[in-house]
Design goal:
The protein is of the alpha/beta class and 274 residues long. It has a single domain (7-273), classed as 3-Layer(aba) Sandwich (Rossmann fold), CATH 3.40.50. It contains ten helices and seven strands. A seven-stranded parallel sheet has the order 3-2-1-4-5-6-7, sandwiched between helices. Strand 1, helix 1 and strand 2 (31-34) form a beta-alpha-beta unit. Helix 1 runs parallel beside helix 2, helix 1 packs across helix 7 (216-229) and helix 4 (103-131) runs parallel beside helix 5 (152-172). The longest helix is centred in the middle third of the chain and has 29 residues, at 103-131. The protein is globular.
């Protein structure tokens, strides 16, 4: 795929995986739409997206603010007339036992990591389906494949995000819109430092496995290469995390079966019966 002139919108773009994806797409000649809450840090990433990059539009907002999201979608589409790629990357992790975690923390993590990501996609799929092209990528986690202790809320959200994306792929397959789910393992970012504890406070320190994880720039290259190949399920991990992810990998034949069902009129039959 030639990304020159395409518009790629990345949420959570101020740091970590999101910033690395933005820089990599810029190197491949894409226009960038960058979103997150920290406008100053988004501006720093935007400055890195040239000269090969075709420029960047900064749209700062909180992903939980659906009114702001609607306005951002209008601006993003109006900028170049289209959005070709959308990366639902914004999120927050967790480091707390279920027995010591308040329901407020569950609600916050699920709102950010699942509901807000669904809202982002829902706001764009009509535009992409009408054009008959586009790609959506959802950043899940190895913790969206395997239940990991100290991350019950995070796992619930990431498993849910993958389920939404897989079902969405089946529905959009006849419309020419690709849907990818990306499952990172340990990537060297601030994800564990920014994770929520049982009372909702920030953890404030990192994990050794995260600090020794895959470089975000390397991870971004691998993710985009896999999207170019058309991989629907993309696991970015090493060692035990990679092994766990591969054990739970969904066979491509199953994805193909769902797409065949849709092509054979499954949706129309279901709607006729309702």
């Amino acid at each position: 795929m030639n990304y020159a002139g395409q518009v790629a919108w990345v949420t959570g773009a101020s740091s970590g995986i999101g910033a690395a994806l933005a820089r990599e797409w810029a190197q491949r000649g894409a226009h960038l739409v960058l979103s997150g809450r920290d406008e100053a840090r988004l501006a720093e990433v935007a400055a890195d997206c040239g000269p090969k990059g075709q420029g960047a539009l900064i749209l700062p907002f909180d992903v939980r603010d659906e009114t702001a999201l609607v306005g951002a979608v209008e601006q993003a589409i109006a900028w170049k007339g289209h959005v070709d790629i959308a990366i639902a990357n914004a999120g927050v992790s967790q480091r707390s036992q279920a027995l010591k975690t308040s329901m407020e923390v569950y609600r916050e993590i699920i709102e950010i990591d699942l509901v807000a990501q669904i809202a982002f996609a829902q706001a764009l799929i009509g535009h992409m389906a009408a054009r008959g092209s586009g790609a959506l990528a959802f950043i899940s986690s190895i913790a969206g494949k395997v239940g990991v202790p100290m991350r019950t809320a995070y796992c619930a959200a990431k498993f849910g995000l993958a389920g939404y994306a897989d079902a969405l792929r089946g529905e959009l397959s006849p419309q020419g819109v690709a849907v990818h789910v990306i499952y990172p393992g340990s990537i060297a970012t601030n994800v564990s430092r920014n994770a929520l504890t049982g009372d909702g406070s920030r953890r404030g320190r990192s994990d050794r496995t995260i600090d020794q994880g895959i470089d975000p720039a390397e991870a971004a290259r691998t993710m985009i290469d896999a999207m170019e190949r058309g991989d629907r399920e993309i696991i970015i991990a090493e060692g035990m995390e990679l092994a766990m992810g591969e054990m739970r990998r969904t066979p491509d034949a199953l994805f193909d079966q769902v797409a065949t069902m849709v092509a054979a009129g499954y949706i129309e039959k279901m709607e006729a019966e309702s």
